[in-house]
Amino acid sequence: MNRSQLIDTIKLKRSYLCIGLDTDPEKIPTHLHKYDDPVFEFNRQIIKSTHDLAVAYKPNIAFYEGQGLKGWESLQKTIRFLDSYKSSIFTIADAKRGDIGNTSERYAAAFLGLPPTGLNFDAITVAPYMGHDSVKPFLKIENKWAVLLALTSNAGADDFQNSRLENGQTLFENVLGTSKEWGTPENLMYVVGATKAEMLSAVRKIVPDSFLLVPGVGAQGGNLEEVSKYGMNSDCGLLVNSSRGIIYAGKGEDFALKARGQAKILQQQMEVALYDHRII
Amino acid sequence: MNRSQLIDTIKLKRSYLCIGLDTDPEKIPTHLHKYDDPVFEFNRQIIKSTHDLAVAYKPNIAFYEGQGLKGWESLQKTIRFLDSYKSSIFTIADAKRGDIGNTSERYAAAFLGLPPTGLNFDAITVAPYMGHDSVKPFLKIENKWAVLLALTSNAGADDFQNSRLENGQTLFENVLGTSKEWGTPENLMYVVGATKAEMLSAVRKIVPDSFLLVPGVGAQGGNLEEVSKYGMNSDCGLLVNSSRGIIYAGKGEDFALKARGQAKILQQQMEVALYDHRII
Question: What is the architecture, at CATH level 2, of domain A3-276?
Answer without folding.
Answer: Alpha-Beta Barrel (3.20)
